[in-house]
């Protein structure tokens, strides 16, 4: 802790004004600094030593964030913490949609400097400029800010102002942390707008009430949990929290298995993500401004949720929905008919996952009711090449993302037809569609073996297939688990991510990759010869081309000579642009 002490010479001490000497001592907090309970008559259960306090604080890792424009921002959150939250509603460039936020530190230099730095006494802050001290401390995690507050009085006052100015906070709450400690930390951030909690302890109504009381201006709340923790929030408690938070715009929560039933009423809520739902007896929605909803049900065969009634109520209570994601084994054609009857005019993204009873008739209903869809995810359904043909006929001018993983009735002909008829397509997922009937599935892309099994009424394609794709806009292509694919020819200049995991029967001599923009190739659980063929083709494509522009014949055309660089300056720019196409390195991920 010695490194935190600022230099304070006797000369500096002698320059303190009389007004500062007469300044009275400020009374400390009436609450315990470790657990947040009142000090009077209180014996803290936590150790009073500095070591134990530092350890308890270190277990909560996060970054409070403010910026020079004093506006709410966010930061990219580790995707591993969103193992249950569906990503299909937010596919964008470079997966920005994993969190829906930007990195606030990247925009500081471009923001207008309208934020007023607090007045900090140079003598009490180690003679550092106010802007320098502020910018250094605001980049520390909460553990660092709590440690800096113990250095001196000036730093303590500055950290208090940093807490009050923080608008984004990410916390990992350990299992031994108490609700009072979390509440005392949240109360420091009076201007908090975005809160992301990673809970390793159980979530109950006390924690939800603590958040509601400590963060009156909260707009974005995201709660994830570890595998060992339990979410005990009931539907009534969730409904009261959403109704009381009149500023809440986005709410995401994992582990909602204890809801039972819920009724949500909010005029400000725009995004709602709930996962691990199970056997809901009643669902009521009254959210007129809700634009995105994601409901993931637990993968249990005894789920008794009435999805038809749920979708009907959703359509009447949320007329402005644009993005819908529902994942459940109980999805059927009747649910699709209820969704089309809702007539959601603004619908742009539709994701109905794991519905084995969704057929080509369901695709026809969707195409006739919502002709402007930009994303369609029917993974795990029973649609065939005929359904793909209907999609191509209706959405050629709008569809950019098509996900048809775990659809065993689809063949390579349907995939080729989709890439030929959808010119705006940028992302396509066809994992586990072209499967080898004699091979046992060993893919690791899903943790539930039930997802790898086709529906009982599906039919296997008994011959190996080849796939030829030529597309000018395709950027991401996933063929994971296509063990029935033995030949692949790709001509996609914009393709930067290719997933060939578990393509075990793909022959190296029947592989052709004409994709100069490739950056990542996933080849886990593939033959070594195939991996070698991929590496050879990528290295050959990245090899430098012969500079033919630097050669020139004499006037009589008798001999080619090497031209100096300065003479050939007219064509050097075009040559440089052509060389940059294959200048980047492509990564082959095999584990």
From TrEMBL:
Pfam family membership, one: F-box-like
Annotated region described as Disordered, given as residue ranges: 1-28
Recorded GO CC terms: cytoplasm; male germ cell nucleus; SCF ubiquitin ligase complex; site of double-strand break
GO biological process terms held by the UniProt record: DNA damage checkpoint signaling; embryo development ending in seed dormancy; generative cell mitosis; pollen development; regulation of cell division; SCF-dependent proteasomal ubiquitin-dependent protein catabolic process
Annotated Polar residues bias: 7-19
Name of the molecule in the record: F-box/LRR-repeat protein 17 isoform X2
Signal peptide, first to last residue: none
InterPro entries: F-box-like_dom_sf, F-box_dom, F-box_LRR-repeat, LRR_dom_sf
């Amino acid at each position: 802790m010695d490194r935190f002490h600022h230099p304070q010479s006797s000369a500096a001490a002698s320059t303190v004004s009389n007004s500062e000497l007469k300044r009275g001592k400020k009374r400390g907090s009436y609450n315990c600094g470790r657990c947040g309970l009142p000090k009077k008559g209180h014996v803290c259960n936590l150790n009073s030593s500095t070591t134990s306090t530092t350890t308890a604080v270190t277990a909560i890792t996060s970054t409070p964030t403010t910026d020079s424009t004093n506006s709410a921002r966010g930061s990219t959150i580790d995707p591993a913490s969103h193992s249950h939250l569906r990503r299909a509603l937010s596919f964008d460039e470079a997966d920005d949609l994993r969190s829906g936020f930007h990195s606030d530190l990247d925009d500081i230099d471009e923001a207008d400097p309208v934020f007023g730095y607090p007045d900090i006494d140079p003598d009490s802050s180690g003679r550092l400029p106010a802007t320098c001290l502020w910018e250094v401390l605001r980049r520390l995690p909460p553990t660092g800010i709590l440690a800096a507050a113990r250095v001196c009085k000036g730093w303590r006052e500055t950290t208090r102002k940093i807490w009050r100015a923080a608008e984004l906070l990410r916390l990992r709450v350990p299992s031994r942390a108490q609700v009072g400690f979390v509440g005392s930390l949240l109360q420091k951030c009076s201007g908090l707008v975005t809160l992301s909690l990673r809970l390793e302890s159980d979530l109950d109504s006390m924690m939800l009430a603590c958040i509601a009381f400590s963060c009156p201006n909260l707009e974005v709340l995201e709660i994830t949990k570890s595998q060992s923790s339990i979410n005990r929030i009931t539907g009534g408690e969730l409904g009261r929290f959403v109704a009381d938070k009149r500023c809440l715009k986005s709410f995401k929560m994992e582990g909602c298995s204890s809801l039972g039933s819920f009724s949500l009423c909010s005029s400000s809520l725009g995004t709602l993500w709930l996962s691990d739902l199970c056997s809901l007896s009643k669902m009521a929605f009254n959210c007129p401004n809700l634009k995105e909803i994601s409901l993931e049900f637990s993968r249990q065969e005894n789920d008794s949720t009435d999805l038809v009634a749920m979708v009907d109520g959703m359509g009447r209570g949320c007329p402005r929905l644009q993005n819908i994601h529902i994942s459940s084994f109980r999805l059927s054609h009747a649910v699709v008919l209820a969704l089309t009857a809702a007539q959601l005019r603004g619908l742009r993204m539709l994701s109905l996952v794991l519905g084995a009873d969704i057929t080509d008739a369901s695709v026809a209903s969707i195409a006739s009711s919502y002709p402007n869809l930009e994303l369609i995810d029917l993974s795990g359904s029973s649609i065939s090449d005929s359904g793909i043909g209907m999609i191509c006929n209706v959405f050629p001018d709008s569809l950019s993302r098509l996900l048809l993983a775990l659809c065993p009735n689809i063949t390579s002909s349907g995939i080729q037809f989709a890439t030929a008829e959808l010119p705006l397509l940028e992302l396509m997922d066809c994992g586990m569609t072209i499967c080898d009937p004699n091979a046992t599935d060993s893919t690791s892309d899903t943790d539930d073996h039930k997802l790898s099994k086709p529906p009982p009424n599906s039919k296997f394609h008994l011959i190996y297939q080849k796939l030829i794709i030529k597309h000018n806009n395709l950027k991401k292509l996933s063929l994971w688990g296509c063990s029935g694919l033995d030949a692949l020819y790709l001509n996609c200049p914009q393709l930067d991510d290719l997933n060939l995991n578990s393509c075990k029967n793909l022959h190296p001599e029947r592989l052709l990759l004409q994709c100069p923009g490739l950056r990542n190739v996933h080849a886990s659980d593939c033959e070594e010869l195939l991996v070698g063929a991929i590496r050879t083709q990528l290295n050959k494509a990245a090899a430098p081309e012969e500079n033919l522009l630097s050669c020139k014949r004499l006037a009589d055309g008798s001999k080619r000579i090497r031209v100096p660089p300065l003479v050939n300056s007219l064509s050097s720019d075009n040559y440089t642009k052509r060389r940059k196409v294959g200048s980047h390195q492509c990564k082959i991920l095999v584990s």
